[in-house]
Write a structure and sequence with these properties.
Layout: H1 7-15, H2 19-39, H3 44-60, H4 71-90, H5 94-99, H6 112-126, H7 130-141, H8 146-153, H9 157-177
Helix pairs in contact: 1-2, 2-3, 3-4, 4-8, 7-8, 7-9, 8-9
Length: about 190
C-alpha cells in the first residue's frame, strides 16, 4: 500500500508542472474549505465560489511556494482573506454573516443530536468577536497549532493564545448558558499546541 503524498509534495509537483497534483490538492482541500466557509456563516453558493477563488489565488501564487514550508497555513490565510474581502464587498460584517440564516455545516452522516449540538455551537461562535472566532475555528475545528494559527491570522503566537483563551472562555460560558455541558461537546484543550 503506497502512502499518500503530503500537501507540500503535491504543491511542489504542481509547481514543477504536474497538473494532476493540483487536481488532487483541490479534491483533498475543497470539502474542508467548504466547511470552513460554511462555518463562517456563508451560504453554500458563496462557499463554493470562495473555494474556487482560493485555488485560483493558490495557482497564481504557486511560484512563491517554498520547499519545506507548510501548505496548510498558506491555504487558510488565502481563504480567510478572501472571506473578509467577500463580506466587505457585500457590506456585511463577519458577525452579520454568522448571524444570517446560514445553517451550521453538518458533518457527513451526522446523527440528529449531534446536528442540533452543531447548531448550538455555531450560534455560540456567532456571538464571539471575529478575531476570537477565527482563532477558535482554526485551532479547534481545523486542528492547526497555535503557531500555524498565528501565521494565518498575522499575529504573534502569544496574541493567538490570548485570543484563544478568552474565546474559549466566552464560548464555554455561551454553551453553558444554552444548557450544553463540556461532556456534550467534542473535547478540546485550549492549552494544546
Amino acid at each position: 500500500m503506497s502512502e499518500q503524498p503530503t500537501d507540500e509534495a503535491l504543491m511542489l509537483a504542481y509547481v514543477a508542472g504536474d497538473r494532476s497534483a493540483f487536481e488532487r490538492l483541490f479534491e483533498r482541500w475543497s470539502p474542508r474549505l467548504r466547511r470552513t466557509f460554511a462555518r463562517s456563516g456563508l451560504r453554500e453558493d458563496e462557499a463554493g465560489d470562495l473555494v474556487q477563488l482560493t485555488f485560483l489565488h493558490l495557482h497564481r501564487a504557486r511560484l512563491d511556494f517554498h520547499p519545506g514550508a507548510p501548505l496548510r497555513p498558506w491555504i487558510f490565510t488565502i481563504a480567510l482573506n478572501l472571506r473578509r474581502q467577500h463580506l466587505r464587498r457585500l457590506g456585511r460584517k463577519p458577525e452579520q454573516a454568522f448571524a444570517d440564516d446560514a445553517p451550521a455545516p453538518a458533518a457527513p452522516r451526522e446523527d440528529p443530536d449531534r446536528s442540533l449540538l452543531g447548531g448550538v455551537v455555531h450560534a455560540a461562535l456567532a456571538r464571539l468577536p471575529e478575531a476570537q472566532r477565527d482563532v477558535i475555528a482554526l485551532h479547534w475545528f481545523e486542528g492547526l497549532s497555535f503557531r500555524e494559527v498565528a501565521e494565518v491570522v498575522g499575529a504573534t503566537q502569544t496574541a493567538v493564545k490570548v485570543r484563544a483563551h478568552r474565546g474559549y472562555a466566552k464560548l464555554r460560558a455561551e454553551l453553558e448558558a444554552a444548557g450544553v455541558t463540556a461532556a456534550d461537546i467534542p473535547s478540546y484543550d485550549p492549552e494544546q499546541s
